[in-house]
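ok, trying the design again with the full structure, not the truncated one.
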């Protein structure tokens, strides 16, 4: 069901790999709500994924962007502004990769070179995006930026590895840049801390199925789906949330504030 929340708005969606990804679902939802879009991902992800299929569904151009490259970020924003004939109204940052996790290295034995790459892709990329957009005046007044995060930034989830550090940095950048962007441009910046979902990237975390079941039992409303997250992001891009900024917003069915549930107690007593 569409509410025309984003009618006439223009946005950039980072990170749509395939139809399992939250970015993919968000692009579909924003299109349904009336937005015009530009899609982007790393060149290697464009070759591996199915983004051209999504592009045809939402009528959007695809502009490659290596988020660790200042030149690529500048090119993306410049071409997006040319495409739209001006600035954008919203941006979704849905980017994350743990090189150490991919290499099978535990948190206590991470390779610091890999770690630097992880932080650059998963967190510093948000600063690079915002800094470039700030210089170009690429985001319209009362625009909105949302970055996807996870509660491992606040709590220990052993198999989440260095991504926990990356998400903590991502949330810090959101607050710090949110201050400057809000003060000078009335642009709001928030993170959404989502329930675990079965994305291509998320499924690569060791013990993912067990944890997803645990989160379901620990959430009074159950785990929030990718589609529900996409709808929530759409509200944050809309004019209905103009004064929400610098926040880490939990979209997790109540998991973040639940100490224990009867379902978990019952399981432990077996």
């Amino acid at each position: 069901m569409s509410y025309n929340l984003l009618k006439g708005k223009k946005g950039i969606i980072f990170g749509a790999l395939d139809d399992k990804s939250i970015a993919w679902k968000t692009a579909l939802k924003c299109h349904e709500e009336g937005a015009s879009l530009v899609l982007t991902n790393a060149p290697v992800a464009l070759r591996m994924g199915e983004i051209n299929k999504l592009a045809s569904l939402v009528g959007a151009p695809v502009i490659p962007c290596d988020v660790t490259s200042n030149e690529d970020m500048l090119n993306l924003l410049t071409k997006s502004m040319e495409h739209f004939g001006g600035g954008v109204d919203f941006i979704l940052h849905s980017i994350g990769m743990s090189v150490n996790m991919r290499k099978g290295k535990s948190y206590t034995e991470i390779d610091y070179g890999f770690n630097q790459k992880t932080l650059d892709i998963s967190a510093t990329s948000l600063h690079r995006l915002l800094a470039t957009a700030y210089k170009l005046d690429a985001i319209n007044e009362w625009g909105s930026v949302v970055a996807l995060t996870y509660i491992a930034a606040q709590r220990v989830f052993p198999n989440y590895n260095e991504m926990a550090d990356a998400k903590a940095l991502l949330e810090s950048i959101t607050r710090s840049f949110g201050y400057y962007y809000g003060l000078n441009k009335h642009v709001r910046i928030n993170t959404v801390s989502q329930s675990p979902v079965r994305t291509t990237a998320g499924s690569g975390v060791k013990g993912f199925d067990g944890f997803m079941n645990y989160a379901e039992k620990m959430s009074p409303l159950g785990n929030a789906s990718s589609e529900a997250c996409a709808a929530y992001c759409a509200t944050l891009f809309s004019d209905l949330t103009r004064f929400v900024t610098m926040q880490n917003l939990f979209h997790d069915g109540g998991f973040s504030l639940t100490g224990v549930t009867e379902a978990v107690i019952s399981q432990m007593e077996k």
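Keeping the full-length input from now on. The longest strand covers residues 139-149.
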